[in-house]
Write a structure and sequence with these properties.
- This protein is of the alpha/beta class.
- Helices cover 41% and strands 19% of the residues.
- Helix 1 packs antiparallel against helix 2, helix 4 (114-127) packs across helix 5 (140-151) and helix 6 (170-184) packs antiparallel against helix 7 (188-199).
- The longest helix has 15 residues, at 11-25.
- The radius of gyration is 18 Å and the shape is globular.
- The two termini are 31 Å apart.
Length: 306
Amino acid sequence: MREQFISGLSYNDFATFFMPFFAKCDIIFYCGFQEDSVLENIKAEEIKIDIDGTYMNVIRFGNGNENLIIISGLTVTGLEGQGEAVANAYSALSRDYRICLFERKKDIPENYSHEDMAEDVFRCSQLIGIESAFVYGVSQGGMIGELLALSHPDFVKKLILCSSSCRITEKLEKASNEWRMYAQEKDIVALNRSFFKYVYSPAFLESVKEMLPALEMVGSARDCERFLRLLEPVSDFDISGELNKIKCPVLVIGDANDAVIGPEGSYQMAEILKCDLHMYDCYSHAVYDEAPDIKEVIAGFLKRPD
């Protein structure tokens, strides 16, 4: 069994959400893990699917019989090139599922809506032979998942919404306004610093504080421009009046300390959908990375007969 550290995070989880930064700033780090805590060698492939004159990066791994689509949240630099870290972080699910993690298109057009993002996930899924799937969306990926379930109900078999919402909240407006300001100024250090502050728990950030100065420098002016276009549709997002049209089984996961959206996002979705709700109270917006048992929660819901 892997050693746990930092509020219950495993090495695999740690690698998943900070490996893109380590890779881009050439950090070599040692965390003192014993030999049995090293990453499993799970094979992953990254597929670049041609779409609209650009491509969408998809990380594919797993050996199961059921399709599981993960729709990632909004990030500054993305997960391209980090397929192995992602696959190992989801190793507990890869035995039972064929997993594809979908990011966004590499080049983002102006006025790119959440509806467009959902349609792109559907189109790319079809191109790689996925006819139906379980869908797990985190943060903005949850918003995309909601729209995917509404526009293609036969495609989504079950839906998991983690750290997400069906409308913009006061906390989300505050966070997105701050991120927008720094991205417009192309101040990558301030943007990363603000992003980390809102997304991760104070306990986690304290545990990696020596690495943060280097991590905050990762990114470029182009990353800021892309981030702005992906952030734009958040400001008027509200499908609360349509959410009850989702007919597949849904699980909502959230945390009481979510500083990006707030717990009200999770509570409102669960109330509208009359679905299962699993709330944590000691992590952050990034409960999808920080809670050590979240993969078990996901697996339990997916395997449950409905």
